[in-house]
Design goal:
Layout: H1 3-30, E1 31-33, H2 52-74, H3 82-108, E2 110-111, E3 114-117, H4 119-136, H5 145-170, H6 178-195, H7 212-234, H8 241-268, H9 276-281, H10 285-289, H11 300-329, H12 337-358, H13 361-364, H14 368-371, H15 382-390, H16 402-431, H17 457-465
Parallel strand pairs: 1-3
Antiparallel strand pairs: 2-3
Protein name: Rh50-like protein
Transmembrane segments: 12-33, 59-81, 87-107, 119-140, 179-197, 217-238, 250-268, 301-321, 342-359, 406-431
Subcellular location: Cell membrane
Length: 466
């Protein structure tokens, strides 16, 4: 038994049991049911479609599958780190969702001193979990499970505060989470990996490679994420035509980035062959690039163009930008999250700003002020009363112009990048503490350090040959 694994025998259980006790105490003190899950507010005569579980659970189930199966398989691409990729994804996701129910719930679903738990709360918690898993991709194979749990413990509150501040004070449109999910997760993860920089890994690592079977497993993760991504982008969009457009745009964007990935993979390979890493990652770029404008009237052609642009940017990032970040800027982005979530997130945000500047009542009709709520007339404006006659329940807005809303979108981008990068850097310094049992360079990308009865691939091949 190595010293590091011996450390985990005590430290990992202590961390888990202490956090479990804290969580159950906080749940007992502050978490209750929302009105649609509370028997006091429901009867057997309640119309099922009036309960959120029937409207939102299908989206929750799709995102749940993405989190545990899609991400799990996608992160199992290393030849000797398949257990780590899938099992630690399981561990981090479970903990992050439990923690996010409390932290995010405090900012979004709390009143009367209680956090009111419902399906929407769970969906929001899973988005916070997705943020952690994206960030984890930057340090995959180079951290211990204790470090990953600590990262989730710190990242979820930073994310929740950033999300709350941006939505409350800047009041932006970000239906698909391009700013608050993809950009935040990317630059938080890059901040962590910048601090955890390992010079020896720039020369390559003997175990930093894939195999036939690990690539197939990873591709399965890609396919799961690809299929369910429309639910991810549309889960929190307004029901009806907005959600309908979000599903259509996401599918079209993904389709375009997939074809682009195949074409560029063959073109940029000197042998004219396809590269599995390109198919596993670049095909997903379209789901990100349509995110910021996914519920808007951007047109199917625009969604397709965004998928193509996102796929091209992501591919070029993997081929040319990632090596530069590692060699010159101390950013060893193991899964290339800057390409799939950072570059494409910035493209998506730019497209969203253009869509906001082009939006008007002639295109959207009266529902314009439901989609762009902050551009609705202020309280007391005669136009608001006219609109409320056509759209009962329409709330007063801020009376913003298109240019004003666009400027707030820009402010949100820079604020989110700055806060996430700072949070990631500070978290990285915490993870460097010896108590978190970071693996040595020799044991990076290797399951042997953390799993019992692990058989090396060489021994397995010898047994097969024998």
């Amino acid at each position: 038994m190595t010293k590091q694994s011996a450390n985990l025998r005590v430290r990992l259980p202590v961390f888990v049991f202490i956090t479990e006790v804290i969580i159950v105490v906080l749940y007992a003190a502050f978490v209750t049911y929302d009105e649609e899950a509370d028997a006091k507010f429901q009867t057997n005569q309640t119309n099922s479609m009036h309960n959120a579980v029937y409207r939102d659970y299908p989206f929750f189930a799709d995102i749940h599958f993405m989190i545990f199966v899609g991400f799990g398989c996608l992160l199992a691409f290393f030849r000797l780190y398949g257990f780590g990729g899938m099992v630690f994804n399981f561990l981090i996701a479970t903990f992050a969702i439990q923690w996010a129910i409390l932290v995010q719930g405090y900012f979004q679903f709390s009143h009367d001193g209680k956090i009111h738990l419902g399906v929407i709360n769970l969906i929001n918690a899973e988005f916070a979990c997705a943020v952690v898993l994206i960030s984890y991709g930057a340090v995959l194979g180079k951290t211990s499970p204790l470090q990953m749990l600590a990262m989730a413990l710190l990242e979820v509150p930073v994310f929740a505060v950033t999300e709350w501040a941006v939505l409350k004070y800047l009041k932006i449109n970000d239906a698909g989470g391009s700013i608050l999910i993809h950009l935040f997760a990317c630059y938080f993860g890059l901040g962590v990996t910048f601090v955890l920089y390992r010079p020896s890994l720039n020369e390559g690592h003997a175990k930093e490679n894939t195999s036939y079977h690990s690539d197939i497993l990873c591709l399965m993760g890609t396919l799961f994420l690809w299929v369910f991504w429309p639910s991810f982008n549309s889960a929190l969009v307004l029901k009806g035509d907005d959600q309908h457009r979000a599903i259509l745009h996401t599918f079209i964007g993904l389709s375009a980035s997939t074809l682009t990935a195949f074409a560029l993979s063959a073109m940029l390979n000197k042998n004219g062959k396809l590269t599995m890493a390109d198919i596993q990652n670049v095909t997903l770029a379209g789901g990100v690039t349509v995110g910021a404008s996914v519920d808007m009237m951007i047109s199917p052609a625009a969604a397709y163009s965004l998928g193509m642009i996102g796929g091209a940017a992501c591919m070029l990032g993997y081929k040319y930008l990632s090596p530069i970040l590692a060699q010159r800027f101390r950013i060893q982005d193991q899964c290339g999250i800057h390409n799939l979530h950072g570059l494409t997130g910035l493209i998506s945000c730019t497209a969203g700003i253009c869509a906001i500047l082009a939006a008007n009542e002639d295109i959207y009709g009266p529902s314009f002020y439901e989609i762009f709520t902050h551009r609705a007339p202020v309280e007391g404006d005669p136009k608001l009363q006219e609109l409320q006659m056509m759209i009962p329940g329409l709330k007063p807005g801020l009376g913003r112009t298109a240019k004003e809303q666009a400027l707030f979108q820009v402010a949100a981008i820079f604020s989110t990048i700055g806060l996430s990068a700072l949070g990631g850097i500070l978290t990285g310094f915490v993870l460097r503490l010896s108590c978190f049992a970071s693996p040595s360079d020799d044991f990076c990308f290797d399951d042997e350090l953390f799993f019992e009865d692990e058989i090396s691939e060489n021994c397995y091949l010898l047994n097969i040959q024998g």
